[in-house]
């Protein structure tokens, strides 16, 4: 399979994201040469039934809980090594016991020390739907995501053109996968609302400076239409932060580093779920 880079990318990418995307194209070319798309599509078709990612979040909110997407990652560019020893299966079981609605698992290796095996292990250890958190740029990766068992994918609007985002979402929908469209500002939100997905992730981390400010969600969540579901991401550390997000209209949150740095992950996650 010949994977060509797109003719146009959203202009003026933040330096870190631009570098990651450039490296990801090299990775996808190499990996798709080893496993052609036709084979990856076959593996995706054989992956077994999907778990309802969006439905799990809606169910949690309907029951009066916070819809927690609990993240599993070994490291991050801003935080370095986060958890060692690191057991995706153990973390998945702890999150499930705490009442999390879904999981998010990092699979990017160069920047997050993630692997597909982390997602496979986590999903096998629980009944929660799982988001593959990686830098999606090509349909091959969407089929790969389903093949490894992912129930949802992340689309980072800052790193995609509208045409790319549309194409990736179309492939995901054909596989009955959910899409979390991630935005950082009003312009990206406007673009994300052109997609069909109900899930709009508001990332509180500034991509240029890699610092967080949860006021970003307070600014953007009220702009999300009622038929969509805002998901606050990054910088959420305390029950008060959770309540601030809920007051802004985001009763679904994605939390990773804070939980992963706690000695008792289950108790920390339960406090998030019950904070709203």
TrEMBL record:
<dbReference type="InterPro" id="IPR001468">
    <property type="entry name" value="Indole-3-GlycerolPSynthase_CS"/>
</dbReference>
<dbReference type="InterPro" id="IPR045186">
    <property type="entry name" value="Indole-3-glycerol_P_synth"/>
</dbReference>
<comment type="pathway">
    <text>Amino-acid biosynthesis; L-tryptophan biosynthesis; L-tryptophan from chorismate: step 4/5.</text>
</comment>
<dbReference type="InterPro" id="IPR013785">
    <property type="entry name" value="Aldolase_TIM"/>
</dbReference>
<keyword id="KW-0057">Aromatic amino acid biosynthesis</keyword>
<comment type="similarity">
    <text>Belongs to the TrpC family.</text>
</comment>
<keyword id="KW-0456">Lyase</keyword>
<feature type="domain" description="Indole-3-glycerol phosphate synthase">
    <location>
        <begin position="17"/>
        <end position="271"/>
    </location>
</feature>
<dbReference type="InterPro" id="IPR013798">
    <property type="entry name" value="Indole-3-glycerol_P_synth_dom"/>
</dbReference>
<dbReference type="GO" id="GO:0004425">
    <property type="term" value="F:indole-3-glycerol-phosphate synthase activity"/>
</dbReference>
<dbReference type="Pfam" id="PF00218">
    <property type="entry name" value="IGPS"/>
</dbReference>
<keyword id="KW-0028">Amino-acid biosynthesis</keyword>
<keyword id="KW-0822">Tryptophan biosynthesis</keyword>
<dbReference type="InterPro" id="IPR011060">
    <property type="entry name" value="RibuloseP-bd_barrel"/>
</dbReference>
<protein>
    <recommendedName>
        <fullName>Indole-3-glycerol phosphate synthase</fullName>
        <ecNumber>4.1.1.48</ecNumber>
    </recommendedName>
</protein>
<keyword id="KW-0210">Decarboxylase</keyword>
